[in-house]
Design goal:
The first copy, chain A, is an alpha/beta fold. In chain A, about 30% of the residues lie in helices and about 20% in strands. Chain A has a five-stranded parallel sheet with strand order 3-2-4-1-5, with helices on both faces. In chain A, helix 6 links the parallel strand 6 and strand 7. The radius of gyration of chain A is 20 Å and the shape is globular. Chain A starts with a strand and ends in an 11-residue tail after the last strand. The mean pLDDT of chain A is about 90. Chains A and B meet through helix 1, helix 3, helix 4, helix 5 and strand 6 of A and helix 1, helix 3, helix 4, helix 5 and strand 6 of B.
Chain lengths: ~240, ~240
């Protein structure tokens, strides 16, 4: 018997937006693995709530640290690397004789944590990855307005970037999606203001999920910024206007 | 009886990558509308091949022009605007008493043609839009390599942009997705070379579809560049490396 690992993109949060393939794999899974912060239910696990087989065996991959240590420190790097090494071994061992479904929010190849296992698993066992709708796509749908038109340039930025880099990209692109906001939200707001884009910016929390909230970033209380929020600026590119 | 229009994102091409919601709406649809070039089957219609009800009524919205007239000319604008105006009227009339499913490749709010109907339909009838996996997501999965890591900046560019604009964005971003290549492919290749990124660039044709092809852009025969091709440059951002 030959097993394998299949990482399944779950999409932005609404289970109805999972792909047909992801839905089938999740419902049929005997072994399910997912990342989460220790002590939390985990967003990926929450999305598949009510979908798993009763006899499914769950493997919660709990991050040893998240924001307690500076992300660019040597300690953080070493701790995370050994965490990924350890789960690579455990999943590869399971995959000798089992099929393991790894759950991943959004799309696994777009800033996803699974990529750290994906690179390590090469050559150890068969690995397949199923695309998903990205979280930012769910968020721009939450605004009810298209994100890009015609020749618009869309830049995807992380709130963790240096402020001057953010300003530079915000000035050059037409449409913007800014992720990893959270504690970086005050910096992101200052950068948008410096780039002259703050009045066009929206903050979207929990896009496509219960409790979805869409507000102008300029009106946001900066003391209240959840991690699962994305800032969007819509492109206004070329479109054929009605003649009359 | 009150109808409505639901635009459904079909994803990158593989019907198994359609969302559960899109799959259900497409299979149940009594009225189905989709854009296509006159005389062609159309990519959206091809994706749902074998899925439609036998009694489904099809509305092929055939573009009056595509590439025969310069896209920035007043004529092109006027012809397309009246085409969208006409289909807005026809779909809104249908939606008085019917539910109409509009098919859209990829994600409808990401450079999708439906947006031109979406803006015109506001206030005329109920309109819902269902997100889909973008074509570029399908293409980066075709390469088997994650597109973005850590703090990578991803810029999405159109091959129709001026060459100097392309070069500027290609220099600043870590990861790139370049769409609307086709006849612009020689320009895109020159711009990537000028930005020092050509050796990292991949051309992906028909991502997730039969006949999928992934080749280094530097090795591509420029006389053979289909419209449904996307050029990708992968980000190489921060990741915790194995300690040993």
């Amino acid at each position: 018997m030959m097993g394998r690992i299949i990482c399944v993109g779950l999409g932005p949060g609404d289970p109805d937006l999972m792909s047909v393939k992801a839905d089938r794999l999740v419902r049929g899974a005997a072994h399910v693995a997912y990342f989460r912060k220790a002590g939390r239910p985990g967003q990926a696990r929450r999305i598949v709530s009510g979908m798993l087989r009763e006899d499914a065996i769950e493997h919660a991959m709990e991050y040893p640290v998240t924001t307690e240590i500076a992300f660019d420190s040597a300690d953080y790097n070493a701790i995370l690397a050994s965490f990924y090494d350890e789960w690579t071994r455990r999943l590869a061992d399971l995959a000798v004789s089992h099929e393991v479904i790894v759950l991943c929010e959004g799309d696994p190849f777009f800033y996803g944590s699974f990529m750290h296992l994906h690179t390590r698993l090469q050559g150890l066992c068969e690995v397949e990855v199923v695309p998903g709708i990205t979280g930012m796509t769910g968020c721009w749908h939450a605004t009810g307005v298209p994100i890009t038109w015609g020749d618009d340039v869309l830049s995807v930025l992380m709130g963790t970037l240096p402020e001057e880099d953010l300003v530079g990209h915000m000035r050059k692109a037409h449409a913007l999606a800014i992720m990893k906001t959270g504690r970086n939200l005050p910096k992101v707001r200052r950068a948008l203001a410096a780039a002259g884009r703050l009045d066009e910016a929206w903050l979207v929390e929990r896009g496509t999920m219960p409790g979805q909230r869409v507000i102008r970033l300029a009106d946001t209380d900066l003391d209240d910024c959840p991690y699962f929020a994305i800032v969007l600026v819509h492109g206004q590119g070329r479109r054929p206007e009605a003649a009359e």
